[in-house]
Amino acid sequence: MKALDRKMLRDLAAMKGQAVAIGAVVACGIAVFVMANTTLRSLEAARGNYYTNNRFADLFVSLVRAPETVADRVAEIPGVLAVDHRVVEALTLDLDRMPEPVSGLMLSLPDTPDSGLNMVHLRQGRLPDKYHDGEVLVSEPFAEAHRLVPGDTLNTTIRGRREKLTVVGVALSPEYVIQLQPGGIFPDNSRFGVFWMSRRQLEAAADMEGAFNNLTARISPNASEDDIIDSIDRLLESYGGTGAYGREDQYSARFVDDEIKGLRTMGVIPPSIFLGVAAFLLNISLRRILTLQREQIAVLKAFGYTNQEVAVHYGKLISSIVIGGAIAGSLLGTWLAVGMTDMYLEFYRFPVQIFSPAASVYIAALILSMISGTVGMLGGISATVRLKPAEAMRPAPPTNYKQTIVERLGLQRFFSQAERMVIRELERRPIKAALTTVGIAFVCAILVVGRFGKDSIDYLIDFQFNTAERDDVRVQLVEAAPYRALHEFSSIPGVLTAEPFRGIPAILTHGPRSKRIGITGIASDNELFRLLDVDGNEVPLEGEGLVLSSVLAETLALNAGDEIEVQILEGERPHRTIQVSGFVDDFAGTAAYMSLPALNQFLREGRSISGAYLLIDPVRQNSVFRALKERPAVAALSLKKATIDSFMETIAENIMRMRMINIIFASVIAIGVVYSSARISFSERGRDLATLRVIGLTKGEVSGILLGELAVLTIIAIPLGHFIGYMLCLFLSKALETEMYRMPMIIRPETYGVAAVVVLLASLASALIVRRKIDHLDLVTALKVRE
Amino acid sequence: MIPPESNAEASSNDSTPPSEIVFELKGVTKVYNLGTVPVHALRGIDLQLYSGDFVVLLGHSGSGKSTLLNIMGGLDSPSDGKVLYRNQEITKFSERELTFYRREHVGFVFQFYNLIPSLTARENVALVTEVAEDPLRPEEALELVGLSHRIDHFPSQLSGGEQQRVAIARAIAKQPHVLLCDEPTGALDVQTGIDVLEAISSINRDLGTTTAVITHNAVIADMAHRVISLADGQISDVKINDSRIPPAELKW
Predict the structure, then answer these.
(1) Number of domains into which chain B is organized
(2) Tell me, what's the ipTM?
(3) Per-residue pLDDT tens for A195-234?
(4) CATH no. for residue B154?
(5) What pLDDT, in 10s, does the model give residues A110-142?
(6) Across the A/B interface, how many CB contacts are shorter than 8 Å?
(7) CB–CB of A649/A689 below 8 Å?
(8) Is the residue at B197 inside a domain?
(9) Cross-chain residue pair A694–B126, CB shorter than 8 Å
(10) Does residue B22 fall inside a structural domain?
(11) Chain A interface residues facing chain B, Cβ-Cβ under 8 Å?
(12) What's A169's DSSP letter?
């Protein structure tokens, strides 16, 4: 080993505390980068393979009933590559261990296995035999939730008829990577399941012999999706088509896409912050080393080492810290990615293990860390190169101090000598002080962002499901029924209130923009389902006016008072222009509301409802559920609160885990920044501090001077960090906004508090480490050393 | 702790050293273990310093004079033997007691001044007066060293001699009983060195502060009451100057 390299290793050993602190910050940045990007690629690869291998459709459409020949006409539409028609029916299940009826969806399987689109992936058992009655496949998440295995039987109701079904297999489908009840916003694997039956059997159960009520298609990548949708809609109009939609409106596909979008943001923003902070720390540390080694550099140059050799020497020092951090970060990131993909598998069901590390991610990580190292070397190395040997042999000129602004304003009488030292030090190196403050502020910001997701979702749930929607159970009827059906519900003992709704699919068109959506008619005096604006004020349903989700108004470029074309997709398919009377600020899903009588009139029907919102006496909940189970007209039940509770329970552990990681990583940067700054100040001012000790200042007083500077910066950094955190959350809430969810811009005071406390504790921990150095300051030696 | 003492009784008159014992060193030994080889910096020093005494410790580098001064100033502790400061055994002091001993009783002057670069002359002195019990005002202390006109200057704006005089002002502002100077002129040219020695001498004369000055410059010894020569960790010679030469007349 060359002598210069040996020197580099010894220099590294001498600054090991700082090297570890900075390396750890690099490692955190690289770990988040590797974790997010590996997970992203794994998820994308798994999605791509799954969709391709199992022939996931591009377009989906439901209709009332059409003869099979209609499907052939769809296949003839230019750009359509393949068409699959099937029967899809809602069902309810009566499970012994669940008091409430459970909803499900029954899909028909093609007669020939491995044909058609959206092929199921068999995990257990076998496919149903079309000649055996009542054989079904059950989706894996539902099977897991209820511990169902082949051979188990299920009591179900399909189209009002009771059916005893036998589980013969457990399966997955690309259509249900995430399994969500239609209209639901959170998955609840115990209250909603997907089932498959042979086409022949389901046709019989649903009175659909020789017909279909659901169609999916694959289209050529070059074809215009919108044009094909238009053609299909025209074709299926007379068969009760409810409007075709693409993958971007398919629940499961959209969920996965939204997740990928989120991972993309996560793979960019946090690593940039971490690596930016690392670059800054490297920069100040290197400058300090170069100052201390000024004379050594001069000697090297005097002995004939070239500028390049000297620069490479210090470059190696920085590189070893950065590469060490990158390797540690890659290992940590890989480990986290394994955990993250495992966590995803709880929610997103893929037929294969999805974790697939990619070399390109690690190469990118190494390049990123080298970029941060290069930024860290900016300025320092060029100053070394410029240094003339003879000049460097002389000690550096004495540091210049001047009166600070505070003193020029005549405020110095308020400060002790120690405080003046702190103020002048800060003012003499404003850039270092500013960057240190920004570094600590980002720590605080990262902590705020880390807790924002939960704050936001808690607010969303509280606003949407405690304040706006207050029903316990939502009952969906098999088909629209006369208004008196409502009295049937309200007369069930234990039902406290029953309020009606009428739901109908429609297409809203405003100029060139259009959107397929369900219109919900509600009574204007509804108490269980209220339309609220962002401030919690009720949005009135006036006359025939339409009230829309704000996000829908954005999509359609609408203002209150605008007229909009409404095409109903069921029944007589009426069409007319309606005025938009207001907007509702909901955070989940998109919706359009009308007053119930106006909607009934528009549909040219008598007073009809498609379901009811129920408020239930909790004591008599089970008897209400039993009564509902006995009513064949009930197509589906949704227990929003129960669903939300179970979902929050499922994700609670993950949220805790993510928060812990967030706190650990943020603390690592906080300690990195504060420790490095304090360590450098200690090194720069060791002699001053020793002098102060010699002339009789206590350890505490001396520590106060050194650490006071950091205390000031930390205290400035906290509100700044809260502000940066707020802005990052604002950015994220916009970047991650989807039609399914809007993140309310809500940050709880506790979040700001926790961020501040973590920053203070991390700073304190770093201060204590440096404080130990002050305690062990060798007074005699420090006095002899000439700076 | 050590009771404060009035300086009035300690006023000296020319070359006769007053008799009250301020420092008493008994068999002070210091061994440094540098690696595996023990280095004997001091080998059983016995020494007494009196109130108002002006002592020069003379010796080559490595003779142990700095170690001796550091031990008397409470910066270092002996391996063996004891040091009594006004009958208190400082070698038994805790770290904190030593800090307060330095804070209240000892003034230090160093070869490289050791001023705080971020504080002005006045503030460097105030650093001490703010924690001392009965200090001079910083302005008074600076006046004693003849620096009234440079009071608001930062160290980087002062010459070496001026910086050393600020350091002396800082050392005496607390009205210490002892002034310990380690090569105070070591980094200065002759004329500036003489100015600094004048300042130290007048402090000793006017305030009666017991003063010990380390130097390897034998000429400086002529201004002291007593000259103690050290060689190889031992006192090799003690000389009492019958007539002291004022700093202005020293030549080297």
Answers:
(1) 1
(2) 0.74
(3) 999 999 999 888 899 999 999 999 999 999 999 999 999 9
(4) 3.40.50.300
(5) 988 778 899 999 999 999 998 988 899 999 999
(6) 82
(7) no
(8) yes
(9) no
(10) no
(11) 398-402, 416-418, 420-421, 424-425, 428, 687-688, 691-699, 701, 779-780, 783, 786
(12) E
